[in-house]
Every structure is written in structure tokens, then in C-alpha cells.
Amino acid sequence: MTATAPHMPAASRRHVLAAAAICLLPLLLQLPLALGLGFGASALLVTAAAWRRPLPALLRILLGITAIIAVAATMHGIGRDSACGLLAGMLALKPSETFSLRDGRSLLGFALFAPFATFLLDQGPLSLALALLAVVAVLSALRRLAGDESGGSNRPQASARPGWRDLGEIVRLLGLGLPLALAAFWLFPRLPTPLWGLPDRAVAKPGLSDTMTPGGWLDLMSDDSPAARVQFFGATPARAEMYWRGPVLWDFDGATWHQLRWDAGAGAAEMQPGHARYDYQLDMEPTEGRDLVALDLPLQAPPGSAFALGHSLRAERSLDNVTRWRLQSAPPSAFQPALPPALRMRALLLPRGFNPRTVAMGRAWRREAGHDADGRADAALVGRALAMIRRDFAYTLDVPLAGRNEVDDFLFERRQGYCEHFSSAFAVLMRAAGIPTRVVTGYAGGYRNPIGDYWVVLNSDAHAWNEVWLPRRGWVRVDPTAAVAPERVFDTLADRRPGRIGAFDGLVGIFDASDWLRRGWNDFVLGFNAQRQQRMLDPLGLAGIGGRGLVLLFALVAGLAMGWMAWWLARGERERDPLLRAWHRLGERYARIGRARDAHEPAQAWADRVAADVPRAGIDLRTLGRRFSAARYARVEPAVVRALVRDLSAHRP
Length: 653
Description:
It is built from 23 helices and 19 strands. It is an alpha+beta fold. It has 3 domains: 152 residues, no CATH class; 286 residues, no CATH class; 74 residues, no CATH class. It has a 5-stranded antiparallel β-sheet. A 5-stranded antiparallel β-sheet has the order 8-3-15-18-19, with helices on one face. Strands 1-5-4 form a 3-stranded antiparallel β-sheet, with no helix packed on it. The chain is elongated and about 125 Å long. About 5% of the residues have low confidence.
């Protein structure tokens, strides 16, 4: 703060700090809980400590370094999340040096970056509502600072009246720009990728991965946010048949399962669909990956996607936004009954030197079962493994860190785990017994939202199961977790549905309504893409208008909107300022007697020109002209301005 910078009044400083806090709030809600609470508490403490005088420079530097360390410790790596976290930390510390009018404007301009940065992390309706509130608060604070700096010359009541009285004017200003904003949203050509080309998030959004390490899904399985929303057209499968197929994992290195890397252009596997058919629409939440999910098994890949090896779907582009897919699925009666030798080899491959007890048990089981051509021996081995799991194992999320021989530890020592442990151990045991096996990841179950009649698949519904290959039948789904804990596989049954706390159902309706509103927001706003933009223009006879035509149409509508804005501002300026309104009305009275002021003529020059020719009535026009110039361009008391308005209104030529 320099010595010449005007000091900010206490009331205005409170207004500025409140506006900055409103700007910071939506960004804090998108940060990790501990970091968001920490920065929120820091903002309050810093504001209280620096209420009367700025904090020492050394202390401010130490606080800034602490904020950087907190962001680095919470958000590993450099990316959008860490940059937004650092922005929140710096904004929380900025009140420690905000005392002059210039400081206030600087803080408000800096604070506006926070709601804008929020949209890089979340584009939901709550973030938009908080951002609009923040913009209104900042405009109100800026208007107050302008009144403080001008001394109230142009707005006699600006610095005296409370900020809430300015709300109507601020809302009118926002409404002024609304036509241009709507034109940009509806008519500006949609691009397939973001203009800013930002890197992936340092802290990835929850979602399926092309790898699976037993014990690595705890964060995902504790996240009750939606992963997808599904609306069926016609028949709906039973909840126990809702397996949402995602990445299929083949390769095992002893610790982690991986997708095959040479599956590009694999195409759909040979599949004979059963009698049941399901037609549905799937809205996929953004994951920043390319893996789609579909009800087992999809009949064809929708436009914009392709089949990967294992009959899973991959989008052509990263799923950075909410995407909508129209799909058809059917349970198979036979699924790839002829397995190519290369795939058979990969589905039997085990790394050397890992899990020797499991491998030995699988080979012993094979010797006991023998071999046959029709696959009855293989089916018996699968049944034997499931019976063992059902009899001796338990489901729990409380598991220790995986060791080198995790499958051995799980099968022979611990005998407790969740779907990752069951599917991984089952696959290793079956491969050791000579049965081609792979791991399928995705989601299981779902929750039907009665408002809107659609199904919600949550991130906590994440699940892993197996497929074994049997002669004449091909790949057959086997879920070892369901053998021991079927209630956990379909964990969105009535007793575990979203919004329920213990035996209390009161929050279920709130969850249903809020999710229905979010679905509508996704459909109306986030899902508005180039295809929907074109379909919107088809009824207007603008089918096939193309990108160039859209640019011209946008330019036309934007030009009309800006012309209306210019007219409204010119008209509104005369109407809102009592002093200027009284002066223009005085000029209109003189214009009626042929003494109008020229557009280029200053007020005092006009008054001097016509005063000699027009009989005096009340206060001399030259005196009014001098007082008007002083009120417009110099600092005068509000009472002086009000008196001048009365005199201008009373003057008659």
C-alpha cells in the first residue's frame, strides 16, 4: 500500500472481503476436503489477524510457502487441480494486505479467477449458481469502491446506501449481456476438444482404469457419486443381471492386471445373442479416459466408439465431458466359441515365481479332474472353486497391503477381501488348472430413481468379475464375489440405496430429486454438442448450415445483441443519473425555443452562448452551467448535487 493510495472505508472493506469469500467458496468445494477446510479456516484467521493493519511481509511469505507445501502434499503432481488449489490458497491469504481502494479492486479482480477456475473442475448447476452469485457480489463491491473514489459526485447516494439496494441495477447489467451470452452458447460452432488444451488432472476423477491391482479400488468403492445414468426403452433386466462391462484385463505380472496392448482394431468377438434384448440410453459421466461401459453384452459399437479386445467399448476421444450413447445389449447364448490360439495362450499365461501354492493347487485339481472334450471337467473345476469360496471365505474392505504373493496370502492365509481379490485369485487358480480365464472390470447393479424412471450407476458400484472359456460355450461369466457376498455386489438394494442413513429414509427423496435435476442439467447444458446444435437448427430450415454458416449466424445475432446493448446503455445513462437527467431536460426546454445545444458543445460554452439572448428566469443559466461542470468533474458534497438538481428542474427560459 503506497502513501498516496486512498484508504478504503471500513464498510467498503467488509463488502470487498465478503465478495472475495463468495468467490472463493465454489472453488473450495471442489478441492480435497482437508485442503478446502484448511484454506477456508486460513482465510478467516488471516482476515481477523489483519483487520486493523497488514501482516508483516515475512509472515505473509511464510504463509504463502505453507500454502504451496499444503497443495503439493495433497495434490501430487502439476496439473489443473494443483493450480486451482494454489489459486485458492493465494486468494485466502490476499486479505492480509488489502486496505486501500486499489488493493480492494486488485482483490476483486483476483477473486473472479476462483469461480472461473471452478468450471475446470466441475460444471454442475451448483457451481454455476455460486459463480453467478460471486459475479453479482463483485460487481456490487466494485460499484461501492467507485462511489468511494469519486466522492459521490455522480451518484449522490452511492456510498451511503447499503449494497443490497444496488442489486436491481446489477441484475439489469447482467441481463444486458444475457442475449450475447445465449447467442454464444447456442450458435457458436461447437468444437470436439476444449480450446485451452489443458493437461489431465493431477488428481484423476474416479473411474475405471485399464489396470487393476488388488486393494487399489478403496477410494473408488467409497465414492457414491454417479458414474452413469441409464434409461431403458422397453424391457429392463433384473438388477442381478446388471453387469456393466468395462475394460477386460488379460495380462498379469504378479501384482497388477493389464489390458492387452495389441488390441487396436480388434472388432467385436463372435457372439450369439440370447432371446432377451435391451435397448437403452447411457449418459456417461466424465472420466478423462476412453473406456465406456455397456450392459453385458453390447450388440454393436455406437458411433464414436469401437470394440476393443474382449468385447469392451472404447470411445474415439477422451470422455472429458458428459457423453450420451444409445446402445443395445443381449445376454449371449454363446460367446466366442472358437478361441484363437494366441488368445488362448494369453488367457493361460502366469508370471514365473509368483504364488507357488496357488499354482500347485490348480495343477493338482487338474490332475484330479482329468480332461474331456465337452468341457465337463472344466465346468466341474469352476464349480469346485466357487464352492470353496462360498464355504471358507468372507467379504471385507479391511485388508492389508498386498505382498509379493498376494494370491497365496488371500487363498491360504487371510481368506478375506473384496472383488479385486476374489477375481484376481480366481483367475490365477483357473489358469493354473488349465482353464483360459480373464478379469472383467466395470460396475454391477444400479439404483432406480423413481423421479424420471432411470437407473443410476454409482462409482461405488465398481466391480470386477471373471470370464472362463469353456468348450462349445465360449466365454462364460463367473462372479466369485457373488458366491460369498451377493448383497455387496448389488449394494444399491433398498437397504443401501443412496441417501439412506441407517434406518432413516428421509434423505432418499432429496437424493432422487437432486440427481434428477443434475441429469436434466447434463442433458440441457453439458450434453449440448455439435450434433444437437445442428438438430436445433433443422426446424428453422438451416439443415447442413456448417461451421461457416454458424459463424455468420452468430455474428448476425451477436451484432443485434450488441446494438441493443449500446442503445440501452445510452438511454439508461440519462435515466439513471438524476443530475444528468435534469440537465438534459433543461436542454430540451431551451431546444423548444430554438436554443438547442450542439452535440460537440461543452455545457459552459452553451450556457454562455444562449444566456445573453434568452430572458433571465430565476437563477442565471451561466451560473447553472458552472455548477453543473463542477458537479460532474470535481468532488462536491452529495447535498450540493441534490440542490443543483432541484435548481435545474426549476429553471425556465
